[in-house]
Specification:
The chain is 33% helix and 20% strand. It is globular and about 60 Å long. It has 400 residues and is of the alpha/beta class. It has helices at 36-41, 66-80, 97-106, 130-141, 206-210, 236-243, 261-272, 297-302, 313-326, 334-347, 354-367, 377-381, 383-392; strands spanning 2-4, 10-18, 23-25, 30-32, 49-59, 87-91, 114-117, 149-153, 156-159, 164-165, 174-175, 183-186, 189-192, 224-228, 248-253, 276-281, 306-307, 395-398.
């Protein structure tokens, strides 16, 4: 489906993946079944925007798999290979939107925006928030540049990194508990206050080129599990994850990154077997910190685990997966990844191959912001584009 507003200035591709924004009543509950064309038909178009729809798949996002996410990553890269495309909007379920957005952002090196949105209320309901969110996402995608992958929801613009679902049902579903939002959108204005913090983007992994959701013959992707610590917690679930073949584990610890001596020992054994271990926290906001011993973050780091900064479990798992997918890819554009991670591994006094390379890359993805500065008008859209938009289309401002 293609919809055109008379201005015709910006060409946006909408990739539909399902979720609540596409969900209709099935007799006992809601499930995603509305097409991208159906979803788009509910929303007005911003002035000067042309929209094309790609129906990629249609699933409730709680059923999202790494194969779905990698197929979406490939589709985004294929879409942006067309220089005539000005931006991409992805409609997605809210349950796992934070994971998909972060995976896309880790591999997004293009200045054109990729914007994820969705809904908290189902398709076709009288008070549905999907049409407004989609309109806002289209407006942002047709306006900004060089901000990476964004989440636009309930009039707010968020960076992919750090943004998580913080409300199960409320319209204002997303926020970064450890940082301010990037900006706002509304009344034909996009206001961007700052640029997001992002590591150097990764190239498209080989697994994304062949990912096929639901194909039983597809190559198996690395298993990465999340294990939560709690009072009285032991090593049973961590050991079960290893027995199931996990190549990466995210330990959701207590406080600023603390567990027990027994868990530290299990982590050390896992790292010795070449498993990537990242430590996050079940606390909603704030960074991890090496403060406590006796099974705390001091000991976990000494055992070879990596602290995730302000990333929480779901996005930390995506970082581990991305590091594993990049392992062993050293040709073409992947040479930059090989060079940088190899240098980090060498500085650490370890081999620049295999697990050491993956650990060095994971450290960069967890630590990796390359900038955190106030946005300027030029950052948002470039002087010429900014002038054109403010003169004859949606207004764009940037506030320091």
């Amino acid at each position: 489906m293609k919809r055109t507003n008379d201005g015709g200035a910006r060409r946006i591709v909408v990739i539909s993946t399902g979720g609540t924004i596409a969900s209709r009543w099935q007799g006992t509950g809601y499930a995603a079944d509305a097409s991208g064309d159906d979803v788009l038909a509910t929303a007005p178009l911003p002035e000067g925007v042309t929209v094309e729809v790609v129906d990629l798949f249609n699933v409730n996002s709680s059923r999202m798999t790494a194969a779905h996410q990698l197929a979406l990553l490939r589709t985004v890269h294929e879409t942006l290979a067309d220089p005539g495309v000005d931006g991409v909007v992805i409609t997605h379920g809210t349950d796992t939107l934070e994971e998909t957005a972060f995976l896309l952002d880790l591999h997004h090196a293009d200045p054109r925006p990729v914007v994820l949105t969705g809904a908290q209320r189902p398709f076709g309901t009288g008070d549905g928030d999907g049409p407004g969110n989609l309109y806002d996402a289209l407006q942002v995608a047709s306006t900004v540049r060089d901000l990476g992958v964004l989440v636009v929801f309930d009039g707010r613009v968020h960076a992919a990194r750090g943004t998580v679902k913080t409300q199960t049902l409320a319209a204002d579903a997303f926020s970064d508990p450890s940082a301010a939002r990037l900006g706002r959108v509304g009344f034909s204005r996009v206001d961007i206050a700052r640029r997001p913090r992002r590591p150097e983007p990764l190239p498209l992994p080989a697994a994304a080129r062949t990912a096929s959701p639901g194909d039983p013959g597809a190559a198996r992707l690395p298993r990465v599990d999340i294990v939560t610590h709690h009072s009285g917690g032991d090593t049973v679930l961590l050991e079960a994850a290893l027995a199931a073949g996990a190549r990466g584990i995210v330990l959701e610890a207590t406080g600023a990154g603390n567990a027990t001596p027994e868990i530290v020992e299990a982590v050390a054994d896992a790292v010795a077997r070449g498993v990537l271990v990242a430590v996050t926290t079940r606390v909603p906001a704030g960074p991890l910190a090496e403060i406590y011993t006796g099974g705390g973050a001091v000991d976990l780091v000494a055992a070879g685990a990596l602290l995730t900064g302000t990333l929480r479990a779901a996005q930390a798992r995506i970082a581990v997966l991305a590091a594993l997918l990049a392992e062993g890819e050293h040709s073409g554009t992947d040479s930059a990844v090989a060079d940088s991670t190899g240098a980090e591994a060498t500085e650490a006094g370890t081999s620049a191959t295999g697990p050491a390379r993956s650990a060095a890359l994971l450290r960069r993805l967890l630590d990796g912001p390359v900038r955190d500065e106030p946005a300027t008008a030029a950052d948002v859209n470039g002087p010429a584009a900014l002038t054109a938009l403010t003169a004859s289309g949606p207004a764009v401002t940037a506030r320091a």
